[in-house]
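G., the chain you wanted modeled:
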Amino acid sequence: MEDEMRQRCESSRSLAYAVADVAAQLKSATQAESGAASSVALKARLSAASTRNHQHAATTAREVARHEVRHLRLAAEAAQTALGLAEDFRKRSFTADAAQLEEAAQPDTGQVLLS
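Predicted structure as tokens:
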């Protein structure tokens, strides 16, 4: 649960970073000179911002994937432990049931002597 919260926080931060970056680029573009030169500069800045955002998103996605692999490994380990415990319980129950059946099948020594 803590990892999920951290992942959500990282995703929110990534989105906020991307929005702030685009807003800053647009603000600087509106303050720049008008004309073809500023349009080309704006496109270049926006392209660079987009590239940075894609790289940041890819990094965050890899981190989320690493966390998911860790969670799946822990879940598999827990399942193996539960399976081992269930098998051990089954063996003990079978042994206990067999002992009870054997005990019930043996005649009571006192009743055998009385007969």
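The mean pLDDT is 79.

Shout if anything looks off.
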